[in-house]
Write a structure and sequence with these properties.
It contains 3 helices and no strands.
């Protein structure tokens, strides 16, 4: 990880992309607005949780553990947003 600022920017970027996809889903399927808004709320809660984790590493004085912590955080971020995208896709496929 290059630095904490870039990690936070990446978290925000992923959230923005997800919210954009949610807005498009609402536009094309207005009948599913409530379900999509619920998924969006989960995404914002995920963003807030990731920020809290990013700002509070477990062992801030041990450089090797900090690197491992942020690598795990990045993997968690990717998988969590991936599952949200899958949930949105499944909702859009359902009739």
């Amino acid at each position: 990880m290059a630095n904490l600022r870039n990690l936070k920017k990446e978290i925000d970027y992923r959230l923005e992309e997800f919210v954009f996809d949610c807005e498009m889903a609402i536009y094309f399927q207005p009948s599913k607005e409530e379900a999509v808004v619920g998924i969006m709320e989960n995404a914002v809660a995920l963003r807030n949780a990731l920020y809290i984790k990013a700002n509070n590493p477990t062992e801030p004085r041990n450089a090797s553990l900090v690197k491992k912590y942020y690598a795990a955080l990045r993997r968690d971020m990717v998988s969590s947003f991936g599952s949200l995208f899958e949930e949105l896709s499944a909702l859009n496929e359902a009739k």
